[in-house]
Amino acid sequence: MALLTILEYPDPRLRTKAQPVSVFDAALRSRVDDMFETMYAAPGIGLAATQIDWHQRLIVIDVSENNASRQVFINPEIVSSEGAATGEEGCLSVPGIYDDVPRAERIVARWQDVNGQWQQGALDGMLAVCLQHEMDHLEGKLFVDYLSELKRQRIRKKLDKERRARATARPAAGGRTSSP
Ligand code: NI
After folding, report:
1. What tens digit of pLDDT does each residue of 166-178 get?
2. CATH architecture label of 12-169
3. Cα dist. 135→23, 85, 170 in Å?
4. Are strands 118-124 and 106-112 parallel, antiparallel or unpaired?
5. Which of 59, 67, 124, 166 shows the smallest number of beta carbons within 10 Å?
6. What residues have CB less than 8 Å from 150, skipping those under 6 apart?
7. What are phi and psi of 97, to 5 degrees?
8. Torsional class of 122: left (φ above 0), alpha (ψ -120 to 50), beta (otherwise)
9. How far does residue 178's CA lie from ligand 1's centre (Å)?
């Protein structure tokens, strides 16, 4: 297994529309394992393939508290949805940012499993919200798109500042000397 790099907003590759998965083989299962490992390490509760720069319609989710409920959604579709649930969301591609996003409260979804078998289920609660969030990724959409342009500007500035801080911190840790 391998840890994969998660793309961060506003990386334009996050805007790519994912293609359907058509081959259900060992390479796909290996990719799923890598995505779970990457998601648990982050840590997060959901990861779409788009976020690791692989533009196929594949999502992994685990909303349990002990990493014991791995769920894989391949080529997912929402069959029906009802109700409204607005809650605070975050995203591994927008680290440290949380805000309210309007979602459907309950959905019926269908998807393929790692063997290509079609499954259908009624989802609610955090799982329903998480699947809607991850399905947006497959369309090149991020949760910050639901916010105002002013908020998005602030988020871009904050993330940019943090990336610059990380970039300058690294050489110093590698032994660069500094004078007072
Ligand atoms: Ni996300």
Report:
1. 998 876 555 444 5
2. Alpha-Beta Complex (3.90)
3. 20, 16, 35
4. antiparallel
5. 166
6. none
7. -110, 135
8. beta
9. 38
Instruction: Report CA(166)–ligand 1 centroid distance (Å).
Output: 22
**C-alpha span between 141 and 60 (Å, rounded):** 17
pLDDT interval class at 180 (50, 70, 90): low
| The total number of residues written for the chain in this structure | 180
- Which are the catalytic amino acids? 134
The tokens describing 99, both together, are: 């805000």
CB atoms within 10 A of CB 64: 13
Compute, in angstroms, the gap from residue 8 CA to the centroid of ligand 1. 10
Q: What number of H helices and E strands is found in the chain?
A: 3, 7
Pull the structure tokens for residue 158: 């904050």
